[in-house]
Design a protein that fits this description.
The chain is α/β, with parallel strands linked by helices and about 240 residues long. It contains 6 helices and 14 strands.
């Protein structure tokens, strides 16, 4: 299992988020619209994962959308939401989880319309749970295209520049009320280990009113950057 992306809820327009990160020296691009969910995003691609800055575009559609991530966005508004794990066979992942007694939403179809009009499709899978102050589980994704095909297209349309592919995530640090309990739950979900193939999952004690992802550490991260109630440790450029 590997990290696909980190979801960070923001209050501003994705164009503004992308522009702010470009000013910091990191190339980010506008992603597009999730027309069925009333949301839109900006994307910061890395070597083998990415950051998604997600915000509400159409409140009416978002409020009516029966979608777990949209519900979490409406609840949290701003800050790190959750993480997404990549799988090559999401139906098998679903069968495996349900076979271990973990209730899921079942496989969901998803799509995003880019500014250029391209329709990008994928499949998603969520753990069945209520939105609350407790830490949400990660969700799963299977892309319609291979990673090589996706990155070839992203290079061609300018969403990725050379620097992007030198950057990677070292760890995601989650603030929880009971470290041992959270670690046990996630080990059960992930098959026994908190070490993904491209990222470490770390839990630490928090006194915050919500259990959430609190810190994203890049490989070689030395500089702290706070953005929309999330903390990033970034490498020096």
């Amino acid at each position: 299992m590997e990290l696909d992306h980190i979801v960070h809820f923001v209050g501003e327009n994705p164009k503004e988020a992308a522009a702010q990160w470009r000013k910091k020296g990191f190339h980010a691009a506008v992603g597009g619209q999730h027309l069925k969910w009333g949301t839109h995003n900006a994307l910061f691609y890395l070597k083998d994962s990415y950051i998604e800055w997600l915000s509400v575009e159409n409140e009416k559609i978002a409020s009516q959308a029966e979608h777990p991530l949209t519900r979490l966005l409406l609840h949290d508004q701003i800050g790190f939401g959750t993480i997404c794990l990549r799988t090559e066979n999401i139906r098998k992942t679903n069968e495996d989880l349900e076979g271990r007694g973990i209730k899921t939403t079942g496989v969901l179809n998803a799509e995003r319309r880019t500014e250029a009009g391209q329709l990008i499709k994928w499949k998603m899978l969520f753990i069945e749970e209520e939105v609350s102050a407790q830490l949400p589980f990660p969700f799963f994704i299977e892309w319609e295209e291979t990673g090589e095909q996706r990155y070839k297209q992203l290079r061609a349309n300018g969403a990725i520049q050379a620097l992007n592919e030198t950057l990677s995530i070292d760890s995601c640090v989650f603030g929880v009320w009971d470290v041992e309990e959270a670690a046990d739950k996630w080990r059960k979900l992930l098959g026994g280990s908190l070490d993904l193939s491209n990222c470490r999952i770390v839990f630490r004690k928090t006194n915050q009113q919500q259990e959430r992802l609190e810190e994203v550490n890049f490989t070689g991260g030395e500089t702290e950057v706070e953005f929309e109630q999330g903390l990033y440790r970034l490498p020096l450029l």
